[in-house]
Amino acid sequence: MLGIRLSTHGVSTALRALRYQSLVGSSSSSTSLLQLNNHKTYYPYFCTSSSTTTTSSDVSNEQQHEQQQHQQQQHHLNQLNNTTTAYRILRSKLFIPMQKDKPTDSEMIKSHLLMEKTGMVRKAALGMYMNLPLAHRVLENLTRIIDEEMMNIGGQKLSMPKLLTKQLWEKTGRWESSGDELIKVKDRRGDEYCLAPTHEEIFTDVIANERLPSSSMPMLLYQIGDKYRDEIRPRFGLLRCREFLMKDMYTFDRTPEEAEATYEIVKGAYHRIFSRLGVKYICVAADSGNIGGSLSHEFQIITDVGEDDVITCSSCDYAANVEKADGIAHVKYDPTCSIVQSLAKVKSNEGALAIASVWTAAADKANLYSVKPYFKDIGVFEEITKEQMLALDPSVPVQTFIDESIKGNQKLLHNVFKNNLPDDAITGRFRSATSGDLCVQPSCNGGTFIKKRGIEVGHIFYLGTKYSKPLNAEYRNKNGESVPMEMGCYGIGVSRLMAALIESHHTEEQGIVWPLQLAPYKAIILPNANKANDTNLHRATYLYDILMREPLLRNQIFIDDRLDVQFPRRIKEATLIGVPYLIFIRPNKHQNEKGEVEDEYELVDRRTDEKSIFTIVELLYFFRFKLQ
Known about the structure:
Strand 14 (339-348) and strand 15 (353-361) form a beta hairpin. The longest helix has 21 residues, at 256-276. This protein is of the alpha+beta class. The protein folds into 3 domains: 10-89 and 521-627, 3-Layer(aba) Sandwich (Rossmann fold), CATH 3.40.50.800; 110-325 and 448-503, Bira Bifunctional Protein, Domain 2 (BirA Bifunctional Protein, domain 2), CATH 3.30.930; 327-432, no CATH class. 26% of the residues lie in helices and 27% in strands. Strands 3, 7, 8, 9, 10, 11, 12, 20 and 23 form a 9-stranded mixed β-sheet that branches. A 5-stranded mixed β-sheet has the order 16-14-15-17-18. The chain has 15 helices and 30 strands. Helix 4 (110-117) packs across helix 12 and helix 5 (133-152) packs across helix 9.
């Protein structure tokens, strides 16, 4: 049908064989459509529809017969006792503002284009988007999966304000260290606030004020809500914007050992979340950034449009963000090449300044993050230019780092330092890893690095006492002493994840291909009908009403009732928005074992492009099996 490859699922034959036995029971009186009609039901309230039957004077006998059958079926439905009025989800009533020819710019990636084209989002301002009904349904499905896995490990959901006070952020030093990305506002009294980019301070503050007993730990609290960041250059739609939906969890433990155990538990829950989404992802060791902490992992969806470089090993399971990756250069250093200096400013939480000066071969890129372990209590770590360094106080100490690939070029080093190479200069691996580098993991057997592109959709941190100390989040140990709690923080960019999933679940020809558990609607009924002949629309309506008997399908299927839109265009739109299953009304009938004639329906699975033929009862059990 319409260019779709037709093949038959084995489940179709199995359902036919079991229909009057295991599916509908082994009693002598088999389940009939009349019995289904007399079954009490509940209808979703989303869109209303009232079906009417019209018979033109020039319709054929076959059409008249089909309309009579429809009238009988409608009569059966009208005989339902103690049921609500039938409300149906109709495509003509859904707010899905499709765009035929969406203009693109140089930075509009596929996910952004498809979300605009299919009416999922609309731009409100630079870096801010409106989530329209389709996107909202996908985000609700994502939220449901995240909630299930968070609560399965003891997470408790709450909500925090989005306006956070300056006083709390000053206590941790982040009011200044967060830089221009922190959106700051004042009220009419002159009090200052920020629009929350993250919530470590306020979560820690509420725990500190409540003075929890040690027996209540580990305590796992989380929320899903909007966050804000003044991105200097918002781009790529929902992948890099100023307002975004995020899940953030904060954990509180008594000891580092217990906190690390909690870290692994939450990490396992993250693996289950991304596995349920059916997406190709990897978990990589990562730098903690300005959030802080000593242990961190990112969850990256592998795609060519990703902004992050991630490193994996060809032989072992080592994986790391390029900022954290550690390997040996696969190309021997050329003694004739030049060397270059890279600089970073390091500021401790107490305000002490230092400069990291990293020297590498000109052909390599310095990995400034690789020097962070040589500094303690880092509050701010940022790359600077030589001019910015010279503008600082000359008394600021400078720590020199020499990449091991150039340590043999003593002549060049002495020329650069004018025979004054600092005695405390540290030699090590300070260049950015790249494809072909040798893996240095003890368990690896000669593997080499492979560099890939990824979109960061999750980031987890073991924070230690970075926030609990300044905010006095303490508990009393068995000796009666007040001890700072050990904390962790765990984030998932929910709206970013939606965009990343489109990047990894789309085809150039057919648009979005949602995983079944995330799709805004599981199926669409597509009757080949028009204003001159709407018989198939009546049959589609009858099928819809029967399918609504299944609780798992309520509010999950809709009918494309637009008789003024050409049938091929309706199919194209259904595939673009990512509906996993397309249901077509077949012209022929099926005769069951009792000799009764029943309608048949063609079901197309967009993920496999396979086709099955079902009766109504078989469709019910097919979806029950798939959705459970």
